[in-house]
Write a structure and sequence with these properties.
CATH topology: endopeptidase fold (from Nostoc punctiforme)
Number of strands: 8
Number of helices: 4
Radius of gyration: 15 Å
CATH architecture: Alpha-Beta Complex
Distance between the termini: 7 Å
Number of domains: 1
Strand content: 25-35%
Shape: globular
Strand order of the largest sheet: 3-8-4-5-6-7
Order of helices and strands: HHEEHHEEEEEE
Structural class: alpha+beta
Helix content: 10-25%
């Protein structure tokens, strides 16, 4: 099994500006929350990742009485998704895994980018869906719904994590 980064970015490009109605769009509550992690999780599923229900759960389940759903924190919260991917890589578990890259120049299509604030909390994530003519990665994301955009200066807080995905 391998991560199909082309399928993941195809999904991201299709649904960055038009969310998939098979999933609940998680709107921000004031200045917290949003749909970025759920969107990235959806991209990972499109790229071939399988949901995981055991000791490190990563899942989403619609509930028959829509608009309700059940999902793990690792699916829906940016800091939890980031920790899950890195932690899952050190184990021989099912589900997607992430490996930290040394810098922006190592990014390839389908890699993820996570942003950490001054409180050392990962607060947002995006997926690399293209590169500009100079080789700078372009990202797609939810919460701040964007398709093939440059990383905005407001995301530069203290630390940016570049994550290679594998299954």
């Amino acid at each position: 099994m391998y991560y199909n980064n082309i399928a993941a970015i195809s999904y991201a490009c299709t649904h960055a500006l038009a969310p998939n109605n098979k999933y609940v769009y998680m709107k921000p509550f004031g200045k917290i929350g949003g749909d970025c992690a759920s969107f990235l999780s959806q991209c990972l599923i499109a790229g071939g990742a399988k949901m995981k229900y055991d000791n490190l759960p990563w899942f989403y389940e619609p509930v028959s009485y829509s608009p309700y759903y059940k999902c793990s924190l690792n699916w829906s919260v940016a800091s939890s998704l980031y920790s899950f991917l890195i932690s899952n890589a050190s184990k021989k578990n099912l589900g997607p895994k992430g490996r930290l890259l040394n810098g922006i120049e190592e990014l390839t299509l389908g890699d993820l980018i996570f942003f950490e604030n001054s409180n050392k909390k990962v607060f947002h994530g995006s997926i690399v869906t293209s590169f500009d003519k100079d080789g700078t990665p372009l990202i797609s994301q939810h919460t701040y719904d964007e398709l093939n955009s440059h990383i905005k200066s407001q995301y530069f807080k203290d630390t940016i994590y570049y994550v290679r995905i594998f299954i």
